[in-house]
Design brief:
This protein is of the alpha/beta class. It has 10 helices and 12 strands.
């Protein structure tokens, strides 16, 4: 084996450590390993094992001889304007990870997403901004940059597009990696749940397959292209029986609000979920659910 550690730079540190302990030091070391064997050796799910194998087989960027130290040095943390969000994220949002922001109408989902867009543009990185529900206009984006250091030329780094139908969304997802340029740092998918709501006739099995496709592309784009991804989503009401099992209008003992798309489209180990609960026009609570290692729980905003 090579003495250089050549694991992909954006694999979670815990996964890198597990791979090294199992004797995998280079991407080439994984080339003859089956998904099942890796899953058993590391004690991880088959889906996670498949994701690692996929990443090792399709390295688009650094050469296989690049050292781990040089790869790690490229990682960055992006702190937004909201201290509670940064604190819960352990200092900020890591590059190459996914943040889902959910909340009822009137919460600051779009405001937070735009704040991250401003931060990336000010770092001279391109942002792909997809709006699926006319929730964020070009005028709103312009307002975000009024007092920004990038106010004069932010338009050169914002690629803004409307996508209103589920087929349009899935075509974009299918082609996403070809849309990532050298300077592309952030993708914002505003109201990612809306195209699914506008097609209620989609069968459950088809919906599951579409969400799995998004999961795969998000994983590849974040792991292989180091793309940071932010999605916003509406909430839906879920009825529960007294024992906590799923209920209906006849048996349900309580109702809870949950993100509309669930968690299946979010890659495990790379994703953070933020649920915003407004209490007034200026206060509220941000509750975090994590699929990457960081502190969870409610924080005032």
């Amino acid at each position: 084996m090579s003495r250089n550690v050549l694991l992909h730079p954006t694999l979670p540190s815990s996964t890198q450590l597990a791979l090294r302990r199992a004797g995998y030091e280079t991407l080439d070391d994984l080339s003859n390993t089956s998904v099942e064997a890796l899953s058993k050796k590391l004690g991880i799910d088959i889906s996670d094992s498949q994701s690692i194998i996929t990443a090792s087989q399709r390295p688009p960027g650094p050469p296989l001889s690049q050292s781990l130290a040089s790869l790690i040095s490229r990682s960055q943390i992006f702190a937004c304007s909201y201290a509670a969000v940064n604190t819960a994220l352990g200092g900020g949002l890591p590059r190459g990870h996914i943040l889902e922001i959910s909340g009822p109408p009137g919460s600051f989902k779009e405001t937070l997403a735009l704040d991250y867009a401003r931060i990336f543009v000010e770092a001279n990185e391109e942002v792909i901004f997809i709006d699926t529900q006319n929730m964020t206009s070009l005028a709103t984006i312009k307002k975000t940059f009024y007092n920004s250091s990038a106010a004069a030329d932010y338009q050169d780094l914002i690629r803004y597009t409307h996508l209103h139908t589920l087929p349009d969304l899935m075509i974009f997802i299918h082609n996403l990696r070809s849309e990532i340029h050298t300077k592309t740092g952030l993708l914002v998918l505003n109201s990612i749940s809306f195209p699914f709501l506008s097609h209620p006739d989609v069968q459950s099995s088809k919906r599951t397959a579409l969400l799995e496709k998004i999961h795969q592309v998000f994983l590849q784009a974040s792991a292989l292209n180091n793309l940071t991804i932010i999605t916003t989503s509406q909430m839906s009401t879920k009825l529960l029986n007294a024992d906590g099992s799923p209920g209906n209008f006849e048996t349900g003992a309580k109702a809870v609000m949950t993100p509309q798309l669930g968690s299946s489209y979010l890659p495990n180990g790379r994703s953070y979920r933020l649920v915003i609960v407004p209490e007034s026009r200026t206060t509220g609570t941000a509750s975090f659910i994590s699929y990457a290692p960081f502190r969870t729980g409610p924080a005032p905003i």
